[in-house]
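anyone seen this seq b4? input:
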Amino acid sequence: MIDGKIHKEEVFIVREMTIDDFPEVFHLGEQLFTSDYSPSMYRTWDEYEITTLFNSDSELCLVAEVEEAIIGFALGTTVEKSNSSWKYGYLVWIGVRKGLQQKGVGDRLFNEIRKRMVDQGVRMIIIDTDAENEAGIRFFKKHGFNNIQQHVYMTLNLARTSSRGRRKK
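predicted toks r here
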């Protein structure tokens, strides 16, 4: 990989993430998941996202790499509800280095995490993304996701309010 581009002769691999990958995955996530990316995002990208998911479902924490450089990642988990026989997969984060989208990296990451979830007995995969993330929505539709539901997320900027909930003057 020269100047951040995958060249024809280079093949990227998808593999399980290891502890040694944490810093590189974390910094790639910092570049991708900013407040500009999703100003109302209810989940925040931080070091606990990686460690928590890795500790609970390490086999669903994947990286894509070329020449030992991480160019993408997918982090997922599974959820079993006590009142349901279904096991759900939740693809929490998927990201590909800027400039390398639409090169098949995200597709390979998604296909591998999907296969692993099926092997674990998952019957439905859930994702969420910002309603304005058109590229993300296209990506997920291409992979068969449907039944788009809109949610309302509201924020309260505490720096602009007093302790009683009234706006500061």
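Residues 9 and 78 are 36 Å apart (CA to CA). The first strand starts at residue 13 and ends at 16. kinda curious what u guys think
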